[in-house]
Design goal:
The chain is built from 10 helices and no strands. The chain is mainly alpha-helical and about 200 residues long.
Length: about 200
C-alpha cells in the first residue's frame, strides 16, 4: 500500500524530472499544468465529499503522473504515463489494485474523456478545469502555441475552429464542476463562437 511519506518524496522526484526533462515547447503541458491539475483535483475531491485518505492519495499520485508520458512522446502520452507509473510505483509498495485504479484515472484524461467512476471523473475535470476559469484565454494561448509547434493545428484560425468543436463535445463530469465551471465555460464558448463567426464574415 502506498504511504503518504513515500508519495511526498516521489512528488519531489517526479516534479524535478518534469522540470528538467520536458521540452520547452510544451507551453501548455508543463510542470505548471501538472501542479494545477494536482491542486484542482484536491479541490474537486473536497467539493465532491471524497475524504478517504487512501482515495485522496491515489488521486494525488494519478494527477502527478498523468502527463509524465510527455517525457517520452507527444501522441499517446497517456499510455506512456501509465507505463512509467507501472515501473515506478511498485517500488514504493503500490499494490496491483492501486496501480490499476491510478492508471484508470490517467486514461480518463484522454480525449474524448470517458471516466467510469468518481475518482476518474475528478481527474478528468481537473485536467480541463481551466475551461471554466478566468485564466482561460492565457492558458488557451499557451495551448495554441504548443499545438502549432507540434503540428496539431496549422495556425490560429484552425486552432479556433478545433477549440470550438472541442467545446461543443466536452462536458464536465462531476456535479460540482458542472455547477462551478460550466457556466463560465459557456461564456467562453459564446465569446469564441462570436469571434469565429465575425472573422468568417470579414
Amino acid at each position: 500500500m502506498i504511504q503518504p511519506t513515500d508519495v511526498h518524496i516521489l512528488a519531489d522526484r517526479i516534479l524535478t524530472e518534469l522540470r528538467t526533462g520536458l521540452s520547452s515547447r510544451l507551453t501548455y503541458h508543463s510542470v505548471k499544468h501538472t501542479l494545477d491539475v494536482m491542486e484542482q483535483a484536491a479541490a474537486i475531491a473536497a467539493r465532491e465529499a471524497v475524504d478517504d485518505p487512501n482515495e485522496l492519495l491515489l488521486l494525488k499520485v494519478a494527477a502527478l503522473y498523468h502527463d509524465t508520458g510527455f517525457l517520452l512522446q507527444y501522441k499517446g502520452h497517456e499510455e506512456m504515463s501509465c507505463k512509467k507509473a507501472m515501473h515506478d510505483l511498485p517500488l514504493i509498495g503500490c499494490t496491483e489494485q492501486e496501480l490499476k485504479r491510478i492508471c484508470g484515472m490517467i486514461r480518463a484524461t484522454k480525449i474524448p474523456q470517458q471516466p467510469t467512476n468518481l475518482l476518474e471523473q475528478i481527474l478528468a475535470d481537473a485536467d480541463l478545469d481551466y475551461l471554466g476559469r478566468d485564466d482561460f484565454e492565457t492558458i488557451g494561448q499557451q495551448l495554441m502555441n504548443e499545438f502549432i509547434f507540434f503540428g496539431i493545428t496549422e495556425n490560429e484560425a484552425s486552432f479556433e475552429e478545433l477549440q470550438l468543436h472541442f467545446f461543443e463535445s466536452h462536458h464536465y463530469c462531476t456535479a460540482s464542476s458542472q455547477k462551478l465551471r460550466a457556466p463560465v465555460k459557456q461564456q467562453h464558448y459564446e465569446a469564441l463562437r462570436n469571434k469565429y463567426l465575425t472573422e468568417r464574415r470579414l
